[in-house]
Every structure is written in structure tokens, then in C-alpha cells.
Amino acid sequence: MSKLKRPLAVLAGLCLSVAAVFPAAHAADESVLRVSAIPDEAPTELQRKFEPLGKYLEKELDMEVRFQPVSDYAGVVEALDAGRLDLAWLGGFTFVQARLRTGDAVPLVQREQDAAFTSTFIASDASVDEHSDLKGKSFAFGSVSSTSGHLMPRYFLQQADIDVDAFFGRVAFSNAHDATVAWVASGRVDGGVLNSSVWNKLVEEGKVDTSKVHAYATTPTYYDYNWTVRGDLQPELAERIKAAFLKLDPANPEHKEILDLQRASRFIETSPENYEGIEQAARAAGLLQ
Predict the structure, then answer these.
(1) How far apart are CA 32 and CA 158, in angstroms?
(2) Which of 26-30, 87-91, 151-155 has the lowest mean pLDDT?
(3) C-alpha angle with apex 197: 192 to 199, nearest 5 degrees?
């Protein structure tokens, strides 16, 4: 079965595999905070974004902070469940999957922007200005488990009476937001959808040729990303981690660098209840049984 024809059934196996990317769990070692993030951008970009934050957390928590990259979204969920991770940057849908799998994963904070997040639809043909213009064309989502790159765009298309798999001539999964832009810009697919924050960043940094790809629509808002800890992490440490994020102040130049890399105005507290709408959307879209 080709990648471009991959059915939604692959979700059934998403939370298997990838244990090999993490070292064996060392639950007794409380001197190291093990951190990861869903791979929604290129690995080098994720590492660049995390480095100043990691140094800040080391200073605030007085402990080593170790970033452990993963190759796919399911790896983060499995590692949290197995106790091989302490803290993870998750999308809303990945958090729902982690919460359902572990039963006790705790979302600590989200960016202020994540309370009203959106996805951006893009196309290569300048004449495309609504979904109907892409009927029968090829279209790319990001990762199957991406909230902003798949679940919520699919859900909102469904709400607009568009059956994604019948409407588009070919559906692909690029596995990362920046990859989706590259696919559309190169003509590999006619259209796609991605995290609005990543789209805006790529445009601002001149990393997308807007003569080859343009945004034609934006979804309604929804809750998205958060920093989550495993449920059995020491409560005192979890509170210190939360306090460190909430302490980040854009008026402080050092903090602003961290916030800017995270594309955050500031961090605010969050709770599992904020992601109930994501779970409902996933069930409605057929991505959760």
C-alpha cells in the first residue's frame, strides 16, 4: 500500500512501536528531566527551538534537562505511558491519545495562543480561493495524528459536508507542517493544510515562495498544543515545572527569546477539560473508536 493511499486504519497501530528510540526507563533517577516533543517540524528546528528553553528549565529546576527526539507522534505517547519521558510537548489530539492510553497524563501549561488555534489551507494554483476549487485534486495533510495538520481540518471539512477521501483525487500525509508547504510549493500535491503558526513563521522568515503557494482559507478556532507530564511524576516537581513556564515574562529579554522561539506571547495554565472538544472531534471524524 503506497503512502499516498494510506487509509485512516493506520491509526489503529499508531501507539505501537518506536520504543527503541528511547533508552531504558530510569524511574529512580530524579536528577534528569527527560523531555520530548511531537515531530511536527524538522528535527533540527525542534532542537533549535528547545535549546534555550532547556537551559532555562535546568536553571529553574536545578537539574539536568535532556531532550530526546522521536521519529513519530506515537513514540511520544508510548514513552509517556512507559515512564521513559517526564515532560512532552503535545498537540491537542496527541494529548487526547496520551490521556486515553495512560489514564493520568497531566497537561500543565499551554501557550496563550493555543486557546484559540487555527489551521491554514494552502494551494499552488493562484486561482484557488475556496475548497471547491480543489475538488478532484491532490491534497496533503501533515501527520495522521496531528491536531492542526489533520484532525481539526478534516473535522471542519466534514462539517462543511466534504467527504475528504471522496472529494480529493488523492490524499497524502507529509508527516510535518513544513513538509506540507514544500510539497505544495514543488507541485507534488495541489493543496494542503498546516498549523497556522508554522505557516506564518515560514512566511515571515521568507522560507516560503508565496508566488508558488498561497493561503486560501483558515479554520475556526480550537484548543491545541500543551506541555504534559506523565501522571506519576512527583507532584512537587510537576508544580515547579509549571511555575517555571508561568514565570516566563516577555519583558525579560532572556525570556522573550525563549517565548519567541516557542511562538508564545506567554504560557498559561491548562486542564484536561480544555481538550474534550478535540476528543469529540476525533470521534466524529472517525479517528478514535
Answers:
(1) 44
(2) 26-30
(3) 40
